[in-house]
Specification:
Elements (H helix, E strand, L loop, with lengths): L5 E4 L2 E4 H19 L5 H13 L5 H10 L6 H13 L3 E4 L4 E4 L8 E7 L5 E6 L4 H10 L8 E5 L2 H6 L3
Helix pairs in contact: 1-2, 2-4, 3-4
The structure holds zinc ion (3 copies).
Length: 165
Amino acid sequence: MSSELTAPIGFEQHDHRACVESALKAAETRCADEGLRLTPVRKKVLELLLVEHRALGAYAILDLLNEAGFGSQPPVAYRALDFLVEHGFVHKIERLNAFVACAHPGANHSPAFMICRLCDAVAEAQSAPSKGALGAAAKAAGFQIEKTVVEAEGVCPACLEKVDV
Ligand SMILES: [Zn+2]
Ligand SMILES: [Zn+2]
Ligand SMILES: [Zn+2]
């Protein structure tokens, strides 16, 4: 599982090895603090998603788990994903029916995603559902927003460079 030190990931150049390591450490610390069980398979699924920075479907995750020696039983992958999504380590991208590791672990947030339609790279931004035009409309209607799904599709900087401009 080698990853390039610098990859255009989350659309930004960064030290990806350190990024994966610190995110795994943060997950371990949070699980220890909150009494959550980060079992080997849960940790592996999180690591696979962190390494990719890309949306992966459940079956792609299952294949990678299988390669990593965790077997190929779909319930194993689904249960691990359920745990990771429930506790905010991983988000589900509805439009792709796929999963991506959270880029802001620990923070209670409403993610907003930018999804590259060419390479499936995903960048996560924070959104504030109670602010902005939607927030104002909700306020006027007396509606309390609990969750919003923001998924923007487009072309990432790396792919834009490849496509002729
Ligand atoms: Zn990274
Ligand atoms: Zn997130
Ligand atoms: Zn792309």
